[in-house]
Protein 1
Amino acid sequence: MPRSLEVAVENWPLASPFAISRGTKTSATVVVVTIRDGIACGRGESLPYGRYDETPETALAAIETAREPLTQGADRKQLQSLMPPGAARNAIDCALWDLEAKLTGKSAAQMAGITEPGPVETAFTLSLDTAEAMAAAARAARDRPVLKVKLGKDGDRDRIAAIRAAAPAARLIVDANEGWSAANLADNLEACRSADVALIEQPLAAGDDAILITMSHPVDLCADESFHVATDLAALRQRYDAVNIKLDKTGGLTEALHSAGRARALGFKVMVGCMVATSLAMAPAMLLAQSADFVDLDGPLLLARDRQPGLVYDNSLVHPPTAALWG
């Protein structure tokens, strides 16, 4: 029986404005793909990201290019050559995983050949703001074990010092979102070392990070915007100590699992990250999170409300999805 493919664009308001070095957002606009075969249906969610020249409109157009082979039964392996990596392929790939799980009665974890997922500890993200405002936010979240701190503007040394003072026991991850430069890099790295930061994401612009080869890393550096898929890894090995795997970058769980395996083989630490989206987008990443060194799957915690049923968050402990949600 031919499949049907449905695509929807949904807008999810954030609980409060969320700022990074590139700007501020107040809502998350996601693309949801539903694939039905008459017996079961599978769903996948992605968030097209402007930094990668994606919009909901371009994602919808990309999905349409693959509609015919998908409705005729193209599988996850075939999808990898039908579409390039990115948000559009991610939504389809995750929908195919979900559909196969529901048709076979096997969990996505069984299909992937990994241990059934359990709860994992996720970072909680602090939006970029003044040092005083970020310290207040850190103080309010000081009982969370891992805080991810958005930086990338003048005054970051003061911000990180204030946050560390406000949350002395938290493990800190800094995300500069390409906002630092060669001129302030050494000073910001030293400030992070002094504050006992565990990881720094993407300090310099992707494509402008060759200086990292010649510098010592007093804190482990993680490629985010510089890394998308497994074929990127070899060129990054002398620049970064870790990579942030996001399904919207890899184009789905299929490539994400492959990328994680290759990253480990090359000696990278692995972070599993997310865009700000609902639990449907987080659920497939829970498979990767089981063996990750750093987990950042707090997207639903930043929304005014989440999809139901959603993932269960117990403070910073996130539980794996039920079959009603995904996989």
Protein 2
Amino acid sequence: MTPLTLPPDYACIKRVNSFRELTTTRFTDGVNALCWPRTLAGDFGEVVALLGNSGEAITTLDEARLNSLPVSAAGLIAIDVLLADLKLLRDHELDPILNCIHGYPRDEEPGPVPTDVFSFHADSAPVEAYTYLCTYHGPASEGVRNEDAQRRVDIPATRAELLKLFSGEDNADFRKFLNENCYDLHYAPGPHAQPFSFGLGNLWRIAIEYPGSPVPPCIHRAPATQPGDAARLLLIS
């Protein structure tokens, strides 16, 4: 398996050398993304090919489905990696999901702010939490530095459109409206932004938006895909 080039040495990204370091390192001093670089053995493409395309955009995989695949030795190595990563996260009291993704739904009526996963966005939670993710096959997730992006709701023209949609004033109720519709979690990259790839095989832990977070959330998105692109094999928690 050939990993994609690792992200640039941005100050917001810290590379770690083990799962333990990935889970125990605190986010501080502007670091909001931890990357455990890995070069994984095994044929993940074979796993995806044998899963086929049932017509569903996203298929969630479990141990039974993976173990039922008639894989070669290289495919078996890939499956062992997937099962080991699921166990790592579950043993850490997380609830990981492994998906084979042929496509994501897009906003049918995006309005002033697109809110699908192809838009740069931040994850959020009411309490301290983090997002873990790893792409094993297909286009990898992408990130952008916080200083290279702006919340769409803070762009005057977009905010004016949202106020028209809200049919009210720019007050606490309007801010609640933005939050309830996740408009305040989506970002527009600046004209000189250089999005970075999360790469293949690398396991990430990224900061999300929650009350009292010491760092801003990691802004990221699902990669833009084209018809004919390989299906994604993605672990997320």
Protein 3
Amino acid sequence: MKMNLDFCGIPMKNPLTTASGTFNPRAHADFYDLSILGAVTVKGVASTPWDGNPTPRIAEVYGGMLNSVGLQNPGAKAWIREELPFLQQYDTKIIVNLCGHTMDEYTEVAQMFRGVPVDLLELNISCPNVSAGGVTFGTDPKMVEKVVSAVKKEVDKPLIVKLTPNVTDITEIARAAEAGGADALSLINTLLGMKIDIYRRKPVLARSVGGFSGPAVKPVAVRMVYQVSKAVDLPIIGMGGVMTGEDVAEFIMAGASMVAIGTAALVDPQAPVRILQELEEFCDKTGVKDIQEIRGII
């Protein structure tokens, strides 16, 4: 059974990675050998340390969860010094998610990863643009092309652009990222959601709304991956509600080259191991000899 693939010129042993924001390398390494994954994608890293959002910032809901954790991180210098050496122990590729509140912050953090031994960079364009009154970078095609183009000039590794689903037409955003020079796309980020405590008569989350993830978002994510795969000529990391190996196969059939596991690994830290086994079992059962046979067949 052939699981390996080439993603943006980087050889991957299998199509599984982690979803940024749901993966803590040191914590998850206590449950399984990180080397089993094709790649690991770390939580967003900014040019300077960022505080997280006030609590409560996580809530369980039907079919998934809401989170408003915020892109809490120690900043690029501290991450490179303290966290990268830990990940380098493992035989897996490293994808670093980059975040910023302004164009200058995005380009600055991109510059900080020049020459750093990681394999790919993932640009989180779901951040609020403080220079534009908090409008999310990733919802405006012109802004998407502008920020991707600016960051692309500063990086020396393949650049993945992570798309927000909170738009009218996901293909319009995908085309803008492609025009800006993206090497690959990842989608979807979380949907916006809200939960109200009807007895306390107030939102459960301190910031009222949060990112909705989990099994219930999978049909939306599969649809968007399918649409984007037909609209652009870029490899895709699909994600959103992946709980089983069959879910992975579904995303690959929709057009994804790789698939990220997020909320499932928060519920069960060993989920990636199980999901990889289930994917292999699915392929054996259905006569798939090479995972590439089913990519984009829908």
